[in-house]
Design goal:
Layout lengths: L19 E6 L8 E6 L5 E6 L12 H4 L15 E3 L6 E3 L2 H19 L4 E5 L5 H15 L4 E3 L6 H11 L16 E5 L3 H4 L1 H13 L4 E4 L5 H5 L2 E3 L6 H14 L5 H7 E2 L1 H8 L4 H8 L3 H13 L3 E5 L1 H4 L4 H14 L9 E4 L6 H7 L14 H11 L14 H9 L5 E5 L3 H4 L3 H10 L2 E6 L12 E4 L8 E4 L4 E5 L12 H9 L14 H12 L13 H7 L2 E2 L28 E2 L18 E6 L15 H6 L4 E4 L1 H7 L6 E5 L4 E8 L7 E5 L6 H4 L16 E7 L2 H11 L3
Parallel strand pairs: 6-7, 6-14, 8-9, 8-12, 9-10, 11-20, 12-13, 14-15, 15-16, 21-25, 22-24
Antiparallel strand pairs: 1-2, 2-3, 4-5, 4-16, 17-18, 18-19, 21-26, 22-25, 23-24, 23-26
The protein binds iron/sulfur cluster.
The site of iron/sulfur cluster (SF4) has 14 residues, from helix 1 and helix 6.
Length: 729
Amino acid sequence: MLFGRKNRKSIVIPSKKVKEWKYTTCNYCSTGCAIEIGLNEENRIVTTRGHAGADVNRGKLCIKGLLEHELFESPGRGTEPLIRNKHYEKFEKTSWDNALDVTAQKIKDIQAKYGKDSFAVVSTGQLLTEEFYTLGKLVRGCIGTNNYDGNTTLCMASAVSGYKRSFGSDGPPGCYEDFEHTHCLMAFGSNLPEQHPIIYWRLKEALEKRKFPLIVVDPRVTMLAQFADIHLPVTPGTDCVLINSMMHVIINEGLQDQAYIDAHTQGFEEIKALVQDYDPKVAQHTCGIDEDTIRNVARIYAKAPAAMSIWTMGINQSTHGSDGVANINNLNLITGNIGKPGGTSLSITGQCNAMGTREWSSCSGLPGYRYLENDADREEIANYWGIDKDFFPTKRGLSQTDIFPAIETGEIRGLWLVATNPMTSMPNTGRIRKAMEKLDFLVVQDVYEDVETNQYSHVYFPASVWAEKEGCHTNTERRVNLTSNVLPPFANSKPDLWIFNQMAKRFDNGKVINFPDKAEEAFEEMKQLSKGKARTLDISGMSYAKIIAARGIQWPYREGTEGLKGESRLYTDGHFQTKSGKANLIPVKFYNNNEQPCNDYPFWLNSGRVVEHFHTRTRTGKIGNCNKFSPTPYMEMNPDAAIELGIGHQTYVRLASRRGDAVVLVQLTHRVPRNMVFIPFHFHDCVNRLSLGLLDPYSRQPAFKQCSVRIEPVDQTEAARLNVERRTY
Ligand code: SF4
C-alpha cells in the first residue's frame, strides 16, 4: 500500500498554447542565458524557457529569466514622453519631438553658460551593445561632455581597473568551461547561488562529475559558503591581507611556478619582498583567518595542477577593490594559473551587459578598449566617425561617483540618466537626493516612469524593454549573444537606439557622424573597429546569423575564423597587452581606511542580493512571484547579538549610521557573525540611506559593504504599518 498517495492527483501544467518560440538572451544578470520567448496564436507573449542548445545555460533559467516575459506589460511602464509643466509641479504628456528638442536645447544652454563638461551623462550595464556604442558616439562625438560614465562604476569598475593594471587590458581571461578543468576553486565575495544561479549550476555540475576543493572567502555564511569545503569568514575589507599571506606561504615554501613567472611576468622581486610582512602568524590577527588555515589553503591552491579564482562584489565594492583584483591576479600569476584550462582569474560580472558597456560605450575612453589618453586611438576613432580629433578630451572625465559631488559644488548643472536609478543604488542616498534637487535640468530615460529617480526629472523619455528591440549582450565569459526583436515597443516608448539617434540629429556633429537606424549596421561598424591581430577584443568574424546559430560566440573571434567557436581563454600564449608583453605583478599593501565598528556604531553593515530581485527592483519589483517571494527588506542578525540587545525574531528595529536611518524587519540567523548585520541592497529607502561608500582610488567604486551601524528599538505598530505601505504587490 502506498501510504498517503491513494487519491493523489498528478500535477498538470496548463498548456500555454505556444505557437512559436523566438530566440533571445536574458536581460538581467551577466550569466548570459539564452532564452526562447513563446508566442500564442494571437501573437501574445505567454512564456519563456531556457534554450536547450545554448552552452551557457543548457535549457535552464533562474526565477528571473523564467518570469521575464511578464515585463512587457508590467505596471509602471512609461507610455509617453513627459515634461514638467512651467511651475515644475507635475508631469504633462508631450510629443517625442518636443521632449527631444527641449532636452537638446537645455544641454546646449547649460554647456554655453557653464562649459561643455557641465552637463553629465550616466548610463547603465543593461542596454544592448549597439546602443552603448551609439550613446558613446553621441556623448563623445556630438555633445562633447567628458563627464560621462555608466553605473557599472558601482559594480565592475574595480575589476576593469585591476585587469588593466595586471594584464594591460580589460577582459576576463577565463570561461565557465574552466569549472570542468580546475582542481581548486576559490570564490572571493561571490554568492553564486543567489547572484548568478545558472553559473552556480554549471559549477555544481562540474563538482558532481569530478570533485575538487571549493574554498569560499566571505564574512557571511552565504549559500555558496554552505556548500564549500573550506569557508574563510574573513574580516571585512582584509582580503589583501589574506592573499598576501597566502603568497607568503607559497613563495617561502617554493610552491610558485617560477618558470611561468620568469617567462611571462614582471615585478616578482617586489612581490616577494612585500609578502615577507604578511607572515600568517601576524596576518591572522588582521584578516581573522587562523595561521594553519591560511597555510593549508595556500598549499592546496599552489599545488593544484590548475586552480582558479572567481569574485564579485565582495572584492570590487571596497576602498581597495582595484588592488584586491590585482592581488587575485598576482596569486594566479605566481602559480601559473592564467590562460590554461581550469586556471584563471574570472571576474563574475554583474549586469547583463556590463561587459558591453566596458567594451563599446566609450565611458572610460573610446570604443573597443581604446584610450582617450592615446593620441593614435583618438585619431583613429575621429577619422572613422569623420570628426576632428581635437573634439575629444585627452583624458577621462569624472566617474559616476564623482559626478554627484560635482553637482553639489555646481560644477555640473545638468544630467541625463539612462536606465539607472541612483536614488536607490547609490550610497548615502540622502546626499544624492540633495544633489538631484540642485540640478538645473535632469532627463531620465527608463522603461519605467515610476522609477524613484524620475521624481526629480524635468523630462522623461519612455524606453522600450528587452525584446522590444534588437542587439547584443556580452556575458561574463566574453560571449556575445543576440536579443532578437520579438514584439513592437510598448505604447509610445522607443528603443534606446532610436532615442540616441534622434538626439544626435539635434547636434552639429550628428549631421557628420553616421548614426544607422538598424542595430545590425551599428554592429558592422563595431566589427570594423575591432579588427586587428593585436586586439583581444576582436569580433570581426561575427554576424547576427552566426551568433544565433552558435547560441553566442566568445571573443576574440577574428575575421576568417572557421566554425562557430570563439576563443575560450585569453593569454593562452602568456603574452599580455602591456608594452613588454609581460603581466604586471603589483605589490598590494594593506591600509585600513574603512569606517569600523565602534562603541556608538558597533555593527558592520553588509549588503548583497537575493535571488528573486535584480538591482533596484525597477523590473523585478513588478513581477508577481519575484515580488511575492521577496516583498520587503529584512535584516539578518546573529541570535547571540539579538539576545544581548533584547531583540526578537521578526520584530522591527531602526538601524542608524552616521548618514541616516532605516526601519527593517529582523531575521535571526547564524549566517552573519555577532558583529555584523546584512540587508539586501535592492530596496528603496533602505540600506543605502545608511551606507558610506568611500571610494577606491583607482576605480572610484564605492565600498558599499564596509561601514558601521547601531540598532535601536522602534514602535512595532508604526513600523509594521510603514512596511505594509511600501509593499508593492
Ligand atoms: Fe537571467 Fe541570470 Fe537568471 Fe540566467 S541566471 S536566467 S541570465 S537572471
